[in-house]
């Protein structure tokens, strides 16, 4: 592990911060997770395993580099949807989880929930989109700092957190339109091109599998997740 290797690795993932820890570990993120707090720079004095002339954090201390780009935000409004806050998930709060092939963000999740006829959308764990019309009674409103996990598909936005939902509500007068029907009995645009010769009658089965490109990042431990794109002389030591 070297500083350059970690910075390049995290930069390729479009992150803002790169962090090196305990000589051999590299972390990437676009936000500094709570409760990380600054430490004296001298505490990050463990030589890097791949280059002893560089420092790679320390035991329980992470040396963080940044490219200086603006950090992610919680989107406050999306069209007729408004952010209502961060909520706990003691039990399932919203009833339906929906697939968002383009990747979950505040924009895509609210659009998906609206198309499905729901008035509440929730972002969870950086990649999940939940929909419903009411919140479960067990859900508690907590500080926005609890919803600081970046969206996997867009590092400029936060998408809730583990066991935390960033809730958006449809704010326009009236409810969203009902779901659009996706089936029809109209076969006028179809032409018969083949018939079975074995006397068996079977329905035509079509399976559509959409492959969504993704990048998997291997994190060696789970105590921190941090990172950088261009190596600059801007660094901090965190514990």
Your description of this structure?
8% of the residues lie in helices and 28% in strands. Strands 7, 8, 9, 10, 11, 12 and 15 form a seven-stranded antiparallel sheet that branches. A five-stranded antiparallel sheet has the order 2-1-6-16-3, with helices on one face. A two-stranded antiparallel sheet has the order 4-5. The two termini are 19 Å apart. The model is unreliable at 194-234 (pLDDT under 50). The chain is mostly beta strands and 239 residues long. The longest helix is centred in the N-terminal third of the chain and has 10 residues, at 3-12. A hairpin with a 2-residue loop joins strand 13 and strand 14 (154-158). It contains two helices and 16 strands. Among the domains are: 3-66, no CATH class; 77-170. Residues 1-68, 80-171 form the WSC domain. It is found in: Membrane. Pfam families: WSC.
Largest sheet: 7 strands, antiparallel
Order of helices and strands: HEEEEEEEEEHEEEEEEE
Q: What is the tally of helical segments?
A: 2
What's the gyration radius in Å?
A: 23 Å
What are the low-pLDDT stretches, counting only 5+ consecutive residues below 50? Answer: 194-234
Q: Structural class of the secondary structure composition? A: mainly beta
Strand content: 25-35%
Tally the beta strands: 16
* Morphology call: elongated
Fraction of residues in helix:
under 10%
Mean pLDDT: 80
The termini sit apart by: 19 Å
Membrane topology: Single-pass membrane protein
GO cellular component, one term: plasma membrane
Main location: membrane
Organism: Gymnopus androsaceus JB14
